[in-house]
Amino acid sequence: xxxxTILIISIIMSTSFAALLFMQFKYMHQILSxxxxxxxxxxxxxxxxxxxxxxxxxxxxxxxxxxxEHNPQAFSSADSTSEQDTIGxxxxxxxxxxxxxxxxxxxxxRPMPHPVSLPRGFNLRRxxxxxxxxxxxxxxxxxxxxYIYQRSLLDRVAVxxxxxxxSRPLSQSINFKLLxxxxxxxxxxxxxxLPYHFTVKTRTGKLLYRCPDYSSEGEENxxxxxxxxxxxxxxxxxxTVHFPDxxxxxxxxxxxxIPSIIFILILLVTFIVTLIIFLRQKKLSxxxxxxxxxxxxxxxxxxxxxxxxVQMLLDPAVKKxxxxxxxxxxxxxDETKRLQMLIDVVLQTSVYEGRKLRFSPxxxxxxxxxxxxxxxxxxxxxxxxxxxxxxxxxxxxxxHGDKMHITNVLFNIMDNALKYRREDVDFHLKVSTWNEHDxxxxxxxxxxxxxxxxxxxxxxxxxxxxxxxxxxxxxxxxLGLAYVxxxxxxxxxxxxxxxxxxxGTTFIIELPLVKEID
Length: 518
Hints:
alpha+beta; 5-stranded mixed β-sheet; 11 strands
C-alpha cells in the first residue's frame, strides 16, 4: 500500500473519530446546559412561590391580628350575628344600645363623615338578590354610595395592615421553621429532592438565619430570592439556597453517554495501535526487500568469482602455472568462506526469527576471552592498516554464558567498527574491561565515521542499516547488532552505544558476574 493511501486513510479515520468525540462532548454539554437551566428554573419558581406565600401569610396574620385587636365582637360572634348586626359590621352603623356600642369600636372602624344610613328594617341581602337594573334611581344611588363608602373603608384597613407589617423587623415577620417547610414542599412539588442549605440575610448582608445543618459545599452554585419586597428597604431580606449534590445531579443526566465515549476512545486507541503495527510491518517489509537486494548483490560476487576461477582451471586453452593454480585456489577458498559467512547470516536470521537460540552455558573468564578475540581480530585490523589496543582492568571477570555466542558478539562489534572506518585517518580500536556493582563492563571504542543521534537509537533494530550515501558501499544486512542485543539480553546483560558523528563510536556491554559462594 502506498504511503499516500495510508496517509489518506489515517486522516479520514482520525477526522471521523475526532468528529464523533466532538459530537459526543457537544451533546453532553447541551444536555448539561439544558439540565442546569431546568434545575435553575425549578428552583427559582419554588423560591418565588415561597416568597409570595410568606408575604400572603404575613398579610393574613396581620389582618387576623388587626380584627382581633380592634373588633373582637365581629371575630368571636361571627356565627351568631344577626342579619342587622352583619349589615352594621360592614356599614359601621351599629346601634348604640348594643353591648359595647360604638364607643367600643376602634376609631379606624367607625363610620367616615356623613355615612349613608340604611332605613330601619332594610334587608340588604334581599335587595341585593334583585336585579340592579330593576332598582329605582333612589335605590341605585343608595347602593352606589354605600359601595364607595365600604371600599374606601377597606382601603384604609388594608393600608393600615400593610404599614404595620412593613414596619415590623424582618426577624419577627418570618417564621424560619415554616420557611424551611415551605421550601421543602415547593422543591418537592417541582421535582427537586436534593438536600439543600439556606441562609436569610438583610440587604446589607447581616445574617438573620442559617439552617442548622448548614454546609458551604456547593456555594458556588447558589440561588437567591428577595423576601418581603414590598416592605421598607431596611426590612426586606434575601434568601440564598445552594445544593451540595447539584453537580452529581446534573451529571447523572449524561451517565449514559460515558460508555459510548469510552468505546470511541477504545476504538481510537485500537486504530492507532493497528496503524503503528501496520507501519512497522511496512517498514519491516521494506527492510526485508533491502535485505533481499543486498543478499542478491552479496551472493552474486562470490559466485561469479568462484565460477570464473573454476572456468579458468577447467579451460584447457589457459596455460596453468603453479603460481596461477595457487592464486585461483586461494580465490575459490576465500569466496567459499564468504559464501559460508552469508549462509551463517541467513541461518542466524532464521534462528533470530524463531527465538530458538540454544546455549551451552558455562563459566567464562571474560578477560582472557576478550584478549584472545582482540588478538585474533588484530590481524584483520593490520590488514587494513589499523591498530588495536586492549585495556584489561576488570578484577572479577567470571560470567555464566555461551562462549561461542559471546565471542560472536565481540567479533560483530569489532567487524562493524572496521566496516565503518574513516578513510582519512588510520583505523584504531580500543577494547577495555572494568567492574562496577557486581557487573563486568566491556567497551569497544573506534575512531570511525560515527553515528548520527537520530540513528543511534535504531541501530539495534532488525534489518536496520545506517545509510552512508550508497546502499552497497558497506556489506551487511542490518542483522549483526540485532543479534548482538539479543545475545547480551539473554545473558541478563545490557548494551548501548555512544557516538559522536565524524569522531567515532563506543559500544558498552554490561554483563552480570557469577556470585562467589563463601
